[in-house]
Amino acid sequence: MKKRIIGSLLASVVSLTMMAQISKTLSPYSQFGLGMLAEQSTGFNRGMSGLGIGVRNGKIANVLNPASYSAVDSLTMILDLGVSGQFTQYKENKKKVNAKTADFDYAVATFRVLPKLGASIGIIPYSNIGFNYYDAQWIGEPDNGYFGTQANNYYNNSYTGSGGFSQAFLGIGWEFVKDFSVGVNMSYFWGKYNKVISAVFKDSYANTLTKTYSSNVNSWKLDLGVQWTKQLSKDNQLTVGAVAGIGHKLGADANLTTLNANTQTGVSTTKRDSVVNGLSIPYSFGVGFSLVHKNSLTIGADYMLQRWGSLDYPLVDETTKKYTATSGVLKDRHKITIGADWIPDPNPLARGFMKRIHYRIGASYATPYYNIGTQKGPKELTVSAGFAIPIVNTWNNRTTLNISAQWVNASAKDLVTENSFRVTIGLTFNERWFAKWKVD
């Protein structure tokens, strides 16, 4: 059994590694910063809009706080695999465009190593980049004399991009004193992006100006966590948690290649610029709590701060026209999450199938982490609901099917509004290890 589980996990890791650079978004906002930040969680958390910093449950893989790994019991091996699909409507100036995306999402395994020491291994996304759109602009205003022979004096801008970043992690959680646990996730952080902006001028010279922004990252990421649990009464248990992420430069150059070509004369010039070690991830800090009542109802809240505003970001200076590390482009990101999980009867042998289903609900609000020109990027409002359905067989009823649905609204003043409906399906295999079979 252990060989089959480990083999399945390794196969999933290989698949995710091959697919990590496939775009999971078509949002024009993914061209800014490091892209659209992904949910670094499993199906359990997503039913509650990503709640997890203060959640402690030995039957799930909670990667949002590595201190939670110490809650896994000695006979348990948890393997969690997830896929997601998304339908998005983009709206701007009364125009609407619909798009669909889907992909394999994450693979995580959690298990006990020693008494009070748990571990986890897996791959989760960090951010996604993917966009393809264009616009047309006049060189001058038509009502200022650009009709007639000047009517074709305009240019088309096309914007395309792909890529993203992922992390393969190994984590441990240790309950070194009663009710107090610490943990760490050590990650290999990698990814790349390619963003192309092309301007085609419709004049007699047919000039084309193409700018290609690219980078390739191979680095590390370190996340720390703590949890403290207190039995308030016979029926109520409180868990308080905190996490911190170590910010640092990623050791990768941000590259810009500028190609200016004339299709009629065949003359072209190429210019290459780089910002050495120009990309970074921020310091982050989060706190959260959960309250469990009669092992049936769990409610909680999280707050997360990412210090993007302290980082420089490579940008072309409009005054000097130089590609350089620029301050003030990124902003600190704040995220607040609330959520609840309820199971009518926590007894795994309870009679009645509906009584053994987990029902989840949550909501979150996040501020943007970048500016677009002189204004703020899109804020995000998320509302979610989910279910955990037990899968019963003749000897094990601890495996569950996690299904979550999320509505995400991303909007910024006078810019594109995105409304997304996202469905995540996760299968949590909760298998028994080391249990001895008895034969009559």
Q: What would you note in describing this structure?
A:
- The chain has 440 residues and is mainly β.
- It has one domain: Beta Barrel (Porin), CATH 2.40.160.
- Helix content is 5%, strand content 58%.
- The chain is built from two helices and 23 strands.
- The longest helix has 18 residues.
- The radius of gyration is 25 Å and the shape is elongated.
- The two termini are 22 Å apart.
- The N terminus is likely disordered.
SSE layout and pairing:
Layout: H1 2-19, E1 36-37, H2 43-46, E2 76-92, E3 95-114, E4 117-138, E5 154-177, E6 180-201, E7 207-231, E8 236-245, E9 248-249, E10 254-262, E11 268-275, E12 280-281, E13 284-293, E14 297-306, E15 313-316, E16 323-326, E17 333-342, E18 358-366, E19 371-372, E20 375-376, E21 379-391, E22 399-411, E23 417-432
Antiparallel strand pairs: 1-4, 2-3, 2-23, 3-4, 4-5, 5-6, 6-7, 7-8, 7-10, 8-13, 9-12, 10-11, 13-14, 14-17, 15-16, 17-18, 18-21, 19-20, 21-22, 22-23
